[in-house]
Amino acid sequence: MANQQQFRSCYHNWMTQQKLDLDELQQGLNNFPNDVEYLRLIINKALSHFESYHTARAQLAKHDGPSFLAPTWGSTFENSSLGIGGCRPSLIIRLVYVLCGSQLNAHLAEFLNGVTRGNLGEIRSSQLKSIDALHAKTIKEEDKLTAIFASVQEKIADEPLALLAYNSSKVGESSQDEAVDKAMHSHAHDMYKILVEADKLRLDILKLMIDILTPLQAVELLVASKKLHVSLHEWSKKRDIQMGITQLLNAETPSSSGGRPPTEP
């Protein structure tokens, strides 16, 4: 049976892979900025690792979808930033806008003198039009998922859980344990399905954005997104230590599907 230890390992393995991918992407950006074939190779490798991570956690989430929407293995700051188990898909587009503006300002004098770098600061008007269209599409898809997720959350107040709780003689207990377990299992499965859909949207939007960008620009974007993810992870862990809540995060926490996970070494 899947348990919190497996869930935690899946996440930490992904963070390790993120760092490895970041190193390779950074080296490609610094050493082979004009080697289009090599840049495409490392882009495809990074995307393949992203897909593998989504596949692995989708398999685990079948056993306990809620654990991936409120992960015990993440820091409090990271968890507060999650949008249905991960970053909002539109974040990747906002990152392009930020990098484009920052790089254009940093190299404006060179650009006006005809010096080109081919980076995100030099996005063409046709690319920008496609990015704006993708942004609008992404927001619509996000809104759809958010609405579905809200409806799943609201089902807590519907039958049978609401009435089972109301009619119980003692809070937190029920004479209909089988009905409670069935209802919670159904709710957890709904959470799992929305997580899979959200992950699919995240990957789809990233791929569509990479198709719009040149290989060099795509590598720059992947470097920036992975730096942001890894840095936020490390900063958040430090913040939890400063806030004195690290012991709470590392404490044993049973998964919502039942079963006590083994103690971490």
Notable features of this structure?
11 helices; disordered C terminus; single chain; mainly alpha; 265 residues
Secondary structure layout plus pairing:
Elements: H1 4-31, H2 36-61, H3 65-69, H4 76-80, H5 91-106, H6 108-112, H7 125-154, H8 161-167, H9 177-212, H10 215-243, H11 246-250
Helix pairs in contact: 1-2, 1-10, 2-9, 2-10, 7-9
In short:
This protein has 265 residues and is mainly alpha-helical. It is 72% helix and 0% strand.
Report on this model:
Helix content is 72%, strand content 0%. It has 265 residues and is mainly alpha-helical. The protein is elongated and about 70 Å long.
Low-confidence stretches: 251-265
Distance between the termini: 19 Å
Task: Give the overall shape.
Answer: elongated
The counted number of beta strands is 0
Helix proportion: over 70%
Rg is 22 Å
Relative strand content? under 5%
Order of helices and strands: HHHHHHHHHHH
